[in-house]
Fold:
Amino acid sequence: MLSEEGRSAVKITEIRIKLMDEPGERLKAFCSITFDDSFVVRDLKIIEGAGGLFVAMPSRKLTARCPACRTKNHLRAQYCSQCGIRLKEQPIAKDEGGRAKLYADIAHPINSKCREMIQSRVIQAYEEEKARSLLPGYVPSYDDYDEEQTAEAAEPIPRPESQHKAHTDEPAVPPPPHKPPETIPQKRREGDQGAETFES
Ligand SMILES: [Zn+2]
Structure:
């Protein structure tokens, strides 16, 4: 493995693996890698493909803006998550393999030497982590500090009773929002008439 060193301008100095390993799942693990003791990239994925394991770079979902309220929705959304209007099917670009391009890499190697170096090191680290996980007292090396959490409210959460229509027989629990609050652009709601015509 050390013969890989020197072929690529950057060196991986640490790899941390979080095993998923649920039977039947193609996603085998998450990992973070440190370059030159200086720069960490998180959320790489180790995936079982048709031709064996491969490493997917961290990526984000591509989005398109709603024509009415300008909210970003993911490319295959049928309805705007903010104003509820029905969206036309988007033309979706294809990647080199002819698959729909729904994600874009956030961080990635720009040459095949570096890609191969990352992939072989990460897969080796994955195999080692898997072997370690069988030993008693195993502790994963990947720190989970950014796992999804539910925030605590600073004040009691008001029950939206006043907004309930008389004829609904919904439980008192407020329905889940269809969009996380931080992405709701409150100022831009001029074309709001779609909100009440939400179909299901
Ligand atoms: Zn909208």
Q: What stands out?
A: Confidence is low (pLDDT under 50) at residues 1-6, 186-200. The two ends are 54 Å apart (CA to CA). The pocket of zinc ion is lined by residues 66, 68-69, 71, 80, 82-83, 85 (CB under 6 Å).
